Amino acid sequence: MRITKNKRLVTTAALLVAAVGLTGCSFGSPKNMASSSSSSTQSSSKLAKDEAVIQAARKLNVAGHYQASNKKLSAINIADLNHKGYGTVKTEFFDLQKSNDKFLLKTAKGSKSVTTNHATHATTTTGTNHSFDSYNKFTGDYLFYNDDDGDRIQSELDIDTDGTVIQNNNDGTAFHGYATIKPSSAKGVLSYDVSTGTNDTKTIDANVAIDVTWSNGETETYYGYTAYDGSTVLTDGQSYHHDQVNEVWTQD
Hints:
The structure is a single chain. By secondary structure, the chain is α+β, with helices and mostly antiparallel strands. The chain has helices at residues 5-27, 30-62, 66-73, 87-109; strands at 114-117, 122-125, 140-144, 154-159, 164-169, 174-183, 189-192, 201-204, 208-214, 219-226, 232-235, 239-240, 244-245, 248-251. α3 (66-73) packs antiparallel against α4. It starts with a helix and ends with a strand.
């Protein structure tokens, strides 16, 4: 069929419109491309910054500055460790943290060392934590009470007979510390009524006080007692969100 001049113009215009449409579908708008490029650049920059933190923390660890190394690691947002490309950083982060905590705990256990020098020889006596010897019922594994609260990371607490403390968290992290125990007559300490399985609060009379020094230098006191159902319970006695207790642990 013969194509007239007008038909040729219409056909040409239609082809141009189709070509423009295909170009838009294939390559996307410049605005979207710029946004994607900017986001990628920011992620790469953040990763490079965290890699530098790991390198600095590693140097401090090798030099024996374990607490400073942990402080350096705290500059990394733990949530970022699950992002794409963070596999190596995540592994080194937890390896360094574990190494730092190991040596800090060793230092804490030996902090009571006493050296006496005599004319003919020198004797070194290292203090050992025997404070739990008479309080074995307060050692062992504990579970975090009220762990259904979505904004809490605490999961498990383990207190060894030598005073070593490890708190495992829901996000895969762990806190390490060293504890001593002593009798306590504290009264009116805030806790949960764990025998009811509810979040009802109550006050208790403590039997013992467990002082924990965490590897980052922070200290915390847990008050231990026996609940009505016979279970062993620890509470820090601090309020949380006005109507809850900050930390309560029940023996597993």
